[in-house]
Structure formats: C-alpha cells, structure tokens
Specification:
The chain is α+β, with helices and mostly antiparallel strands. Helices cover 30% and strands 34% of the residues. Strand 6 and strand 7 form a beta hairpin. Helix 1 runs antiparallel to helix 2 and helix 6 packs antiparallel against helix 7. The longest helix has 23 residues. The N terminus is likely disordered.
C-alpha cells in the first residue's frame, strides 16, 4: 500500500505548548525594553523573533518528499497488540528530522524517527491494542514534525485502506470435547468396524508421518494424500458453536478459539460448525487461520 503523492493532505501549522512559553518570554522582554527604554533588550527581542520567523519555512518543508508504505498486518487475538509495519521514504534532497508517526483513530499508537537521510528509507512498526474481535480498518496515518525549534507543529495526513482481523481471545476449558459431533460421512465410516480398516483418504498435511501416504496415487501424478483408517476417521473432531453451553456469545466464540488452537497443537483433525458455515476437518496453519477468521467475523 503506497501512501502519499496527490492523496496526501497537509494541515495548517499549529502552535505547540512551547509556543506559549516563547510568547510569554517575548512579551516580557518587550515590556522590559519599553519601560526602561533599553536598546539591548530591543535587540534581544528582535533576534528571538527573527530566529522564530526563519524557523517557520524549515518546519513546513520538513515533511516534504516523505512517502509511507504499509505492509500487510498479521491477525492478532483480542487483548494482544496489532503491529503495523511502515516504511517511510525520503524522496527529497535534504535530510528530514524528528518525524513522528501516529494513528489518530487508534489512540496512543506513536513512533518517532529521529532522522531520514535524503533518498533513503527507514522502517518502523506502529503498535496498538486489539480491543474487539472482527475486521477493522486503519483510516489515517499522520506524520508530524516540530523541527527545528519545537514551537510549531506541521502535520501531513495520509489516507489508508489497510484492514486487519482480530480473532476472539482464546479462553475457557482447555480440554477438547469428550463427545465429537460427526457428519453423516463419518458415521458411515464407523460401520466398517473397529480396528485399522481403510476408510478413505484426505489431503496430506506437512509434518505428518509419511507412513500412510498413498504412494500409488503419487506415482499416477496426483497430489499427496494420506490414507485414513477407521480409528483415525472416528477421531475427526467437529467444534460446534451450538454445542458450547455458555450464555454469552463472545465467551462461546472464545471457547471455540481455544479448542481450535488445542486441536491443532494436538495434531488432531478438526472441523468447525457455525450457523452460517461448516468447515470440514483438516490440519495445518491455513486451516487454523481459516477457522479463527470465521470465528472473528461471526455475527
């Protein structure tokens, strides 16, 4: 995501708290100079005012030529931190100093870059809390600077369409359900009887033992598949929202999120059932994130 160029907006200069102190000093010097008719005081007053006025164009130009590129945001669990990687590029011919990046719509997220040389780039990470589950959007990124004297602040607003997902916070009973809700297909497999009777194949998951790979299918040019037997087929776990006996919806989703993580950790094939979607049992990181994403977006 590229931010800057014609889409950027620079807001007017705004005084900082230090400006009030400067103004007080200037008024005090003027009062002393006028009441005592002191030429040295007038000279000091004009010198301070000149330095301040000369600093204004330096403050305005300190954000010129800066562009920001944001990388994709990894999902996080509610209660954790979300990390937004940013690369700030200085396309001007002058070094830029004291650049502060903020996310005005997300509270206190703030990072400072002390120096960006000409035609160079600097990477930083803005971190902010993941408060509620769901899909969220970062609306704006602000670049601000008070360089060189700190009396005035200039701001550049960069629009952003970056989205991120917050998973439900894993919480509840860590033990997987003792009774597994099975699909009709799983029930028919149980009719083969107990033991190690062949019960079909499923997609191979990286990291599993290669002992049960269907090598004949591989020799025919097919994808890696793992043979399933009756005992393994009976172990397919369906995590069902309707089966979670809790009153609060968020607590039920948190329980399912915890079970998804525990089932993946135990390498036990698991599926997910929600009123709006059913995900068939599987394993692996893509399957894990698919289940957690469905829980995050559930309404």
């Amino acid at each position: 995501m590229r931010q800057g160029g014609s889409s950027e907006r620079r807001l007017p200069l705004a005084p900082t708290r230090s400006f009030a102190g400067l103004l007080f000093v200037l008024v005090a010097i003027w009062y002393g100079a006028s009441s005592q008719n002191n030429a040295a005081s007038y000279l000091l007053l004009f010198a301070l005012m000149s330095v301040f006025l000369v600093s204004i164009p330096r403050t305005l130009s300190n954000l010129g030529g800066l562009q920001a590129t944001a990388e994709s945001i990894k999902p996080a669990f509610a209660g954790q931190e979300v990390s937004l990687p940013l690369e700030v590029t200085n396309e001007s011919r002058a070094t830029r100093y004291g650049i502060v990046l903020t996310l005005p719509d997300l509270g206190d997220a703030r990072e400072r870059i002390d120096e960006i040389p000409a035609d160079k780039a600097t990477r930083t990470i803005l971190r902010f809390p993941a408060v509620t589950r769901g899909e969220h959007e970062i609306g704006r990124v602000h670049l601000t600077s008070v360089y060189p004297l700190g009396f005035l602040r200039v701001l550049k607003q960069l629009p952003s369409a970056q989205r991120y997902v917050v998973y439900p916070k894993p919480a509840g009973d860590q033990r997987l359900p003792a009774e597994t809700a099975r699909s009709g297909q799983s029930s028919s497999r149980r009719e083969l009887g107990e033991g190690d009777d062949f019960a079909g194949v499923r997609a191979y998951v990286r990291g599993e033992s290669q002992r049960h790979i269907d090598w004949k299918a591989v020799a025919r040019g097919q994808a890696l598949m793992t043979k399933q037997f009756t005992a393994e087929a009976d172990g397919l776990l369906y995590l069902d929202l309707a089966a979670v006996r809790l009153d609060d919806l968020e607590a039920r989703l948190s329980q399912l999120a915890l079970w998804v993580i525990e089932a993946e950790r135990a390498r036990r094939p698991y599926g997910l059932r929600l009123p709006t979607v059913e995900i068939r049992p599987s394993l692996g990181e893509p399957h894990l994130h698919r289940c957690l994403r469905e829980l995050a977006l559930f309404k």
